[in-house]
Amino acid sequence: EQELKKPVSELFTDFETEAFASASMAQVHKATLKTGEKVVLKIQRPGIKEMIFSDIKVMLYVAAIFSKRMPSLKSFDPVGLVRSFEESITKELDFIYESVSVQRFAHQFSTDESNHDHIHSPKVYPEFTTSKVLTLEFINGIKISKIEVLKEKGYDCKIIARRLAVSYFKQIFDYGYFHADPHPGNLLVL
User: Fold this and answer.
1) Which of 27, 38, 44, 183 is the most buried (most CB within 10 A)?
2) Which residues contact 148 (CB under 8 A, 6 or more apart)?
């Protein structure tokens, strides 16, 4: 409500207060928009930014000690590695960056002349997205790791594996931009 500047009841016809998924910096809730569209809201955990930057201070302190006392690590640039991590995690803490990435990913496949009808990326709802809340289309599917369920439902796992591999080759070699978090929670068979 703080982020979206309105009460939940004004924004959604239904909002599940119990998270159905979670990660280190956010939790995910199901909701239904006033339009009837099913969505998920990735909501940043309160205080996570401060906790992460506190941890980074400790990491920088330790990296500086390693740099001074262990000359063999100098070529790895421990302080530089922590600074690089800090830059990356700062972007990850701003869900606007993630919303742009999701849209870019979807655009890559939708404008590719190859037939990629089998790849679907969730729609982003920018009007319900802020630096701390990311609202996406709810996608109901089978986790790619549920091989027995896929087989029971008649899916050919070899075709799925081939399509996944081809999509990654396209992402890496043609687009130069790829999905960097391909765990079963992010890869569903529809």
Assistant:
1) 44
2) none
Q: What is the pTM of this model?
A: 0.87
Q: Which residues contact 58 (CB under 8 A, 6 or more apart)?
A: none
Backbone angles phi and psi of 101, in degrees to 5 = -65, -45
> Is 55 labeled as catalytic in the residue annotation?
no
Does residue 45 sit in helix, strand or coil? Answer: coil
With a CB cutoff of 8 Å and minimum separation 6, the contacts of 142 are 149, 150, 153, 155, 188, 189
Task: Please tell me the distance from the alpha carbon of residue 153 to that of residue 175, in angstroms, as a whole number.
Answer: 33
Residues 10-63 have pLDDT tens digits of: 999 999 999 999 878 999 999 999 999 999 999 999 999 999 999 999 999 999
Cβ proximity of 25 and 93 under 8 Å: yes
**Residue 55 and residue 106: Cα distance in Å, rounded?**
34
